[in-house]
Amino acid sequence: MSVDCRFGANYTPSKGWLYGWVDWDPASIRRDLEAIAGLGFDHIRLQCLWTYFQPNRTFVSPTMLTRLTEVVEMAAECGLDVVICVLNGWMSGTFFRPMWQRESTNLFTDTEALDAERRLITAVAGAVQGHRNVLGIDIGNEPNALASYRGNNVSRSEGDAWASALLEHSERVMPGGLHTIGVDHMPWLRDDAPFSRERLGEAGAVTSIHSWVYFTGALERYGREGTGTLHLARYLIELGRAYGRTDGRPVWLQEIGVSSEWVPEEALPEFAAALLRNALIARPWGVTWWCSHDIDRALTGFDELEYDLGLLTVDNQVKPVGAALAEVIAAHRRGAALDPADLARPRPELVLPEGQVPDLAFADGYFDLVARGEDPVIVCEETAIVRSSRASQG
How far is CA 346 from CA 104, 166, 341, 374, 376, in A? Predict the structure, then answer.
C-alpha cells in the first residue's frame, strides 16, 4: 500500500458546534486546529452552514466569508490544508435549509436556486483565492439527503445534471481544485438515490465515499467483529474506484466514524483503529474522520449518537479513540504497514454484473475473498468486456 495517504478530520468546532460561525471565537478555533494537527492530521473538511452563508438568494454574507478566510489562514498556520464544503443544508442529522428556499423551490432543478448555488460557490472561491492550503470545493454535504426534503423530488438524470453543473462551475471559479460531491452511502449501495454511480465515478476531480457501519446496515448484518463490518470502508473505496472512468482517479474516504452507541466504550479505540487500518489497504487518496470534536451537551436537539463522535473533547483533550487513530497514522507514515510482497501479489477480480446493485448482498462475495486473505478488486462488467475485447484484438 502507498504511504502517501492524506489524513484529516471533518472539523466540528468545540465551542458552539457550527453555530460558532455566528458566535465567533477565533482563539477557540485556533486551539481546535492546533489540537487536530497534533493528532497527525494534515487537512480538514470545513463546513459552511448554508443558512448563515446565504440567508437571501441574492445575498452572500460578507461576514461569513471573512470568517471563512480567517479559518483557512489559521489552518495554514497549523499546517492544515482545507477542502471547503459549501451547500450544507444537511448536517449531523438536521436540515438547515435557508428561509429563501420556499417549499416549492426545488434545490436541484429550480433555475433561481441553481443561480443562487452558483453565486455562493463563486463567493466562497473568491474569498479564499490565493490561499494555497485550499485544496478544493465539496459542493455539499450528503446532498442526496436533501432530495428527501419536501419539494425536492428529483430524478436520477436531474440529480446527475445538478452535480455535473455545480462541479463544472467549481472548476471554473477555482481551476485545478480537488472538487467533489460528498454523497453518503445511498447512491453506492442502492438504486433509488438521485445520483448515479457512473456520474459519481467521473464528475469532479475525486470520488468521495462515506462509510458508516451502522447506517449502511453492515453492523447489523455482520456483527461487530465481522469481516463485512471491519472492511466496509475498504469495500466502498474499491467500489468507488470500479466506477472511475479514468485510470488512477483518486478515491477519498471523506467520512468514517463510530459511536459508543454502537460499540462499547472500552472496545471503541481498537475498533476504530481496525476500520482505519483496513481502509488503508484499499489505497485511498485520503481518509477524513468524522469528526474532530464532540458536540457540547449544552446544545440540545441532536440525536444521542452525534454527541460523542469526536476524536477530541470540547476541551481539546485527546480521547482514547483519537490516540488510537494517531498511532495508526504515525505507523502508516513510517511505512510500518508496508509489505512489498502485498504489492506484487495478484488480486482476484470480482465482476459486478451490469444492472446489479452493488449492495451488501453483492459485497458478501468481496468479504468472502477478504476473509480468505485475498485483496480483491471490483470490476464493472462493462469494463471487463472492453478490456477483454482489447486483449483479443491485441
Answer: 54, 39, 10, 9, 9
- Rounded to whole angstroms, how far apart are CA atoms 116 and 110? 10
* Cβ neighbours, 10 Å, residue 227: 20
Letter for the amino acid at 307? Y
Indicate the length of the chain as a whole number.
394
C-alpha cell at 162: 445538478
Cell of 34: 492546533
pLDDT < 70: residue spans in the chain: 1-3, 103, 150-151, 336-343, 384-394
Grid cell listed for 276: 482505519
Q: What DSSP letter does each residue of 310-367 carry, written as one string?
A: -SB-TT-PBPHHHHHHHHHHHHHHHTTT--HHHHHS---EEEE-TT---SHHHHHHHH
Residue 223 neighbours by CB distance under 10 Å: 12
- Give the bridge partners for 136, in sequence order: 83
- Compute how many other C-beta atoms are within 10 angstroms of the C-beta atom of residue 330: 13
Q: How many CB atoms lie within 10 A of CB 336?
A: 11
Q: What is the pLDDT of residue 246?
A: 86
Angle at 112 between CA 111 and CA 116, to 5 degrees: 120
Distance between CA 146 and CA 139 in Å, rounded? Answer: 13
pLDDT of the residue at 285 = 98
- The C-alpha atoms of residue 351 and residue 378 are separated, in whole angstroms, by 6
Say if residues 186 and 193 touch (Cβ distance below 8 Å). yes
Residue 2 is predicted with a pLDDT of: 45
Q: What is the pLDDT of residues 231-266, one digit of tens each?
A: 999 999 999 999 998 889 999 999 999 999 999 999
Residue 154, all three cell numbers = 428529483
Give the span between the Cα atoms of 362 and 367, in whole angstroms: 9
pLDDT of residue 385: 58
- Within the chain, residue ranges assigned H as helices are 26-38, 50-53, 62-77, 111-127, 156-173, 186-189, 197-200, 218-222, 227-230, 232-242, 268-280, 320-334, 340-344, 360-371, 381-393
Q: What is the pLDDT of residue 1?
A: 40
